[in-house]
Specification:
mainly alpha; 259 residues
Length: 259
């Protein structure tokens, strides 16, 4: 009984801000000629979807997050396989070095990255944000996938190659199905780290290509429409919920295998 009460109290503590945000998203907090303050309805969501800038921000976020996940998984799979299956001088230190790079404060590299990306025309572009997020998320993806590949018996590789499979064929038909939970875990973390990142989104989007995080920040001003801000916030949560729903089984299996 005490355990259930403790879990209920914890759930209430975690969900209370979200519940408040959802309630405010349906409430008019900034009255105008047609609506009074406190009116409940879908007005805030209609205003968000009618704003071309906010719609563009949602599209930009979707583009660079999807590209980031695709880039990270595509590059991390062969790198993780090499670390798991082959031995070379400094292999374990290499994995440690790339993980240390991941915890480097992004602001330290902000200036050189901005200068480099401006030379290649990647500023104000979702593709540029996707590349820089991939740079920071790739070490995490390699670290996660390496442990899952290491758990797969080497006999699977040998049997596949004896059956005549090439490298790409082995990856697609044998390795990827075997480590699907690990791919789900890696994709989840790459998605989350990219979706909530603010530093590079601010630096690399000066005039255009702004993501949801920057659009939300721009909505705060001298007279902020809190209801509209909360509506935008709730809409920004939808892709994350959808992502968790699709990879929920892989996440559960992945974390249990990781343990």
């Amino acid at each position: 009984m005490m355990r259930r009460l403790a879990l209920l109290a914890l759930a209430g503590f975690i969900l209370l801000p979200l519940v408040q945000a959802v309630i405010l998203s349906f409430t008019v907090t900034l009255p105008d000629v047609e609506l009074e303050q406190g009116t409940v309805g879908l007005m805030n969501y209609s205003a968000v979807l009618a704003d071309s800038t906010l719609r563009a921000a949602m599209v930009n976020s979707g583009i660079y997050v999807v590209l980031n996940v695709v880039f990270c998984i595509t590059l991390a799979l062969p790198a993780a396989y090499a670390l798991a299956r082959f031995r070379f001088l400094g292999d374990r230190h290499f994995l440690l070095v790339i993980l240390v790079f991941r915890v480097t404060p992004p602001v330290v590299l902000s200036l050189p990255i901005f200068i480099l990306f401006s030379q290649f025309g990647l500023v104000n572009s979702p593709v540029g944000i996707a590349f820089v997020h991939c740079l920071f998320n790739l070490p995490v993806a390699i670290w996660i996938l390496e442990s899952f590949i290491r758990a797969v018996p080497r006999e699977l590789d040998e049997t596949a190659f004896l059956d005549g499979h090439s490298g790409p064929s082995f990856f697609f038909y044998h390795l990827i199905p075997a480590i699907a939970p690990g791919i789900g875990v890696a994709a989840f973390f790459c998605f989350i780290f990219s979706w909530v990142e603010v530093v590079f989104a601010r630096i690399l989007t000066v005039t255009g290509g702004k993501p949801i995080t920057m659009a939300l920040q721009a909505m705060f001003g001298f007279q902020t429409d809190i209801g509209m801000v909360m509506a935008m916030t709730c809409l920004s949560l939808v892709p994350g919920v959808v992502m968790i729903w699709f990879v929920r089984n892989h996440l559960a299996r992945g974390f249990s295998l990781r343990a």
